[in-house]
Design goal:
With 313 residues, the protein is of the alpha+beta class. Among the domains are: 92 residues, DNA-3-methyladenine glycosylase AlkA, N-terminal domain (TATA-Binding Protein, 2-Layer Sandwich), CATH 3.30.310; 84 residues, Orthogonal Bundle (Endonuclease III, domain 1), CATH 1.10.340. Helix content is 45%, strand content 14%. The protein is built from 13 helices and 8 strands. The strands form 2 sheets. A 6-stranded antiparallel β-sheet has the order 1-6-5-4-3-2. α5 crosses α10 and α9 crosses α10. The chain is globular. The protein binds a DNA duplex (13 and 12 nucleotides) through α5, α6, α8, α10 and α11.
Length: 313
DNA sequence: GGCCAGGTTCGCT
DNA sequence: AGCGAACATGGC
């Protein structure tokens, strides 16, 4: 094994602990990523080679600095540059939070959140494909169940590398998912319907019929239009990908049940907001709605906000 | 045990 | 257009 070290300077304020914890759903490990004892780990996939990135903070929220340790079978300058680019993207180090924090600080609903979650950046997925498959797996089911199914999928079909006696996995490649087929996906407890969606998308990518990774150059509307034309992808998934996969600042999955419930609760209305109400209400937060969404979900996941459904009579 | 969960499609009016 | 069922699984 070869090793290398480099540092990253995120745009301040950057709270590494909050960002890494959010990325792993405050669970220690989530999917292909882990965050334990202050170290965030992710096996990066360059297509033909794998390398493990281990990231820790060696700075502060206002003077952030990250140390990244790379471990791989073979390492050259190209691989190292690729690893730097990927891990920077995944941890959202280049995002500028200042305009969002300024806007949110003046908003009575958001002000308490940005105080409690100051410096949280939006983690992003290594690829559009990864975000898409993870989102489809999570459609309609609770985040608890989604966590189980995502982990099963990754552990079953993700490429792996062993470092110091520990096995790390990256997200499965489209080719591998296409090859295991419907049966292979059913085996990791996906419904037949979702198995079809995921297999079809993976096969289309493998044959070159579908290209996802070029969407970085499309504007938001075109991204949504292209995504919803894919079977299995509706508005929720498309808007979620603007945030998770493409790092856009103004995505807002207004059909999201938890989001509508939380907004209803924060606005002290009787029940959950309707999706249309949520969308209209959200316009005041444009063009920072991705951050609003991230902070709301961070508050839910870390239990700053209770998501308990309506209390029983 | 039943009901619901960070949706979407499909088949009905 | 709009509405309801089906979908698989785990937690409460």
């Amino acid at each position: 094994m070869n090793e290398a070290v480099f540092t990253l300077q995120p745009a301040p304020p950057y709270d590494f602990d909050r960002t890494a914890a959010y990325a792993t759903y405050y669970r220690g490990t989530y999917g292909a990523e882990s965050y334990t004892d202050g170290v965030f780990r992710r096996l990066l996939d360059a297509g033909d080679s794998l390398c493990l990135a281990s990231v820790r903070s060696v700075g502060t929220v206002d003077r952030p600095l990250l140390q990244v340790d790379i471990t791989a079978a073979t390492l050259d300058d190209t691989a190292l540059a690729g690893a730097r680019r990927q891990i920077s993207w995944i941890l959202g180090v280049e995002q500028d939070l200042l305009p969002f924090h300024a806007m949110a600080g003046e908003d009575p609903t958001l002000a308490p959140l940005v105080t409690r979650l100051h410096g949280l950046h939006m983690p992003q997925t290594a690829s559009v494909y990864e975000a898409l498959i993870l989102a489809i797996v999570g459609q309609q089911i609770s985040s608890q169940v989604a966590a189980t199914l995502r982990t099963l999928l990754i552990n079953a079909y993700g490429p792996s590398m062993e470092v110091a006696g520990q096995v790390y996995r990256s997200f499965p490649r489209a080719k591998a998912i296409s090859a295991v087929g419907i049966d292979g996906l059913r085996a990791v407890k996906l419904s037949n319907r979702k198995a079809e969606y995921i297999r079809d998308i993976s096969t289309a990518i493998t044959t070159g019929e579908l290209e996802l990774e070029d969407m970085h150059s499309c504007d938001d509307e075109e991204v949504v239009r292209r995504l919803v034309s894919i079977r299995g992808v509706g508005p929720w998934t498309a808007h979620w990908l603007l945030i998770r996969a493409l790092g856009r600042s103004d995505g807002f999955p207004h059909g999201d049940l938890a989001l509508c419930r939380t907004l209803g609760q924060l606005m002290q209305s009787a029940g959950p907001m309707k999706p249309q109400e949520a969308l209209e209400h959200s316009r005041r937060w444009s063009p920072y709605r991705s951050y609003v969404t991230t902070y709301l979900f961070a508050a839910i996941r870390s239990r700053l906000i209770s998501t308990a459904a309506k209390s029983r009579p």
